[in-house]
Structures are given as structure tokens and as C-alpha cells.
Amino acid sequence: MRHTALAGSYLVLETTNTCSLACVHCSVSEPGHPHHARTGFLPLATADAVFADLRAVGARFDTLIPFWLGEPLVHPAFGALYQSALRAAAAGVFGKVELHTNATHLTADKVRVALNLAPVPQVWHLSLDAATRGTYRAVKGMDRFDLVDTNILGFLDAKAARGARWPRPVFQFIVSDNNVAEVPAFRAKWEAACRARKLPVRTAAQHVPPGEDAVVFFRQLDSPTPEAQARANTVFRDAMAREGLPLPREDRTPTAMDGENAGVCACFWKSPVIGWDGRVTTCTRDNRFENALGNVADTPFSQLWWGAEMAERRRRVARVDYAGLPVCATCFIPRSANASDITTTEIEAHG
Asked: Cβ distance 330 to 229 under 8 Å?
């Protein structure tokens, strides 16, 4: 097994599939979705075992994302789990830790966990998607607008007061046709909130730029069909043009897309996903685990991700052969702005 550190690689570790909201663009809002037929929390022992396994085999990912289809801050052992992730990162297993939260549970105890002294780059994406209560309710499925505002402003106050380096706050807005009118107001609101606290801030689209300053971040919506994706691309591109925000990968946001995957998907090399129940799959779009490799409760993650079955899948995917992988065969994301790239050199180096 070769554990080449690949640029842009990330491990998604789902702490829970339960959520305090029901966002319209998330499977949580889909009645009967199998990912949420059974809910639970990732055991701390499972996370520790994954981190120990990676360290033992000398593996490294650029980023650990302790989040997928639930709200990580509701985990009853969130603090201990996050500290375990920081220790793994400090040991060289991860280059940084990137948390995504809707901030409904960003209470004082969670703020204390966030504002730590670990020498590890940390980014917290605050998933907001609205500037007003009405739009927030329409997008997020529940009315938690005032609570979230209060929690985030308290977090910014504490960060400013302590002069804390980490985490880097990212105010995230997924642009869609039901909230696009609020892009200017959202930008103005969170830029002003940071500047009032003398926190450096900038606004970016499509990708979070390197740095430590706060970012008001607009990203493209991933949609379930090529037709819907084409519409989302146009809405996003036009909104960013009005804001004067450049798109680093504008050539990857076509106005027309088909449903055939004609590219090599980097997910098979760069972005494994471990569900809260231990199942391992190849990307976050596989929320039904159609590409499941096994379970870390039975087999160490390193054996699943770098074992014989994945090696064979990679050989086929490198030839753009998605036979036996139906969720991949019709996926259009490898040509979207939200996809990670992989080069022939990286494929050959990784094995």
C-alpha cells in the first residue's frame, strides 16, 4: 500500500447524521431518505481508532472534515472528539481541521472548544445561506435565525477579545434561486460584523482562499440532475458577476451539462467518507452508500481505502470506466466547479 500525500485530499468523518435544521439542499429534508432512516453518533473510540490507524501506516490527508449530513456540535462528546482530531493533526495525520456547523449549538462551551491553543490550522464554516429571517426559514427549514445570529456574534466577540488565531471563521452562503437576492446583504452584514471587531475579513467565491482572515464565502449549489445543475451554475455565475467576485474555475461552470461522467473522478483517491456508523465510501454524493467498501468496525480504514478492492476500482476509474458504479456513471460533478482535480502523475504516484 502507498500512502502518498495528495494535494487537496480530505477525509470526511461524519460525527452524526442528526441535525437541528432541515435545509432544502440537504438529504435531511428528504422524507424517507435511507441515510437518515437510522440516526446516531460516531463513537469516540471509532474516531480514535481511525486516527491511530492512519498514524500507524504513515498516511496523511490535507484536511480532516468532521462533518457530513448532520450537525457536529450536537454530538454529546463533541469536545473530546474535536480534541482527538487536533491531536491527530498535530501528529501529522492531517494538515488542518475544517468543521462545518449551522451554529444552532455554538454555545459558550463549544466556543471554548473552538478557541483553543492547538498549533493546528482550523477553519470553521458557518453554514448560514440567508441574510433575513424569512429566507432563512425557507432555506433552512426552521426558524433559528435570531439564535444563530446571537451565537455567531458571541463567538466573534470571544475570538476578538482573546486575540485567538484559530479557528478561521468562514461565513458560508450556498447560492440558489431562492436566496440569491440576499447575496449583497449577506456580504455587507458579515463583513461589517468582522470589521466592527477589528477582525480582518475578505469576500470570496467558489473556493476559500489561503490565509487566516475571516471569509464571507459564496459557493455554488450542487444539484441532483444535470438540468438543475446547469440552472444553478447560471444563478451562481451571474450573482458573483454582480458582486465583482472572480471565479477561479469559471471554465468549470458550464451552462449546459449532460448526465454522463466523462472524466476521472478524484474522489477515488482524495476524499474518502466514513459515516457515523463506520461505513466507508468514496465521496459525499454517495449518501446511500452504493459504493460502500466495508466498515471500520470490522476492517481498519487503511486496509479498506488502500486495499485490493479500491486499487481495482482506481485502475478502472483511471480509464473512465465506471462499470459497476452506477452512482458514478451518471455523475456530472467531476466537471463542476466544486470538484477536486487529479493528475496522471498523482494517479501513478498513488498506485
From this structure: no
> In this structure, are residues 122 and 97 in contact, taking their beta carbons and an 8 Å threshold?
yes
Beta carbons within 8 Å of 191's beta carbon, 6+ residues apart: 201, 203, 216
Instruction: Tell me the pLDDT band of 224, cut-offs 50, 70 and 90.
Output: confident
Contacts of 113 (CB under 8 A, 6+ apart): 78, 79, 82, 83
Rounded Cα distance between 64 and 60, Å, is: 10
Residue 104 CA to its chain's centroid (Å):
18
Rounded to two decimals, the pTM is 0.94
Q: d(Cα 58, Cα 3) in Å, to the nearest integer?
A: 7
Q: Which helix (H) or strand (E) holds 162?
A: helix 145-162
Reading the block at residue 71, the C-alpha cell is 450537525
Give the span between the Cα atoms of 339 and 199, in whole angstroms.
30
| pLDDT tens track for 276-293 | 999 999 999 899 999 999
The pLDDT tens digits for 309-328 are 999 999 999 999 998 888 88
226: CB partners within 8 A, 6+ apart: 257, 258, 259, 332
- H and E: helices and strands count for the chain: 12, 10
The residues with which 295 forms a beta bridge, in sequence order, are: 279
d(CA 313, CA 350): 13
Distance CA(258)–CA(260), nearest Å, equals 6
**In whole angstroms, what separates CA 183 from the centre of its chain?**
21
Q: What percent of the chain has pLDDT over 90?
A: 77
273-274/279-281 β-pairing: antiparallel
What is the C-alpha R_g of the chain?
20
pLDDT digits (tens, 9 = 90+) for 142-191: 999 999 999 999 999 999 999 999 999 999 999 999 999 999 999 999 99
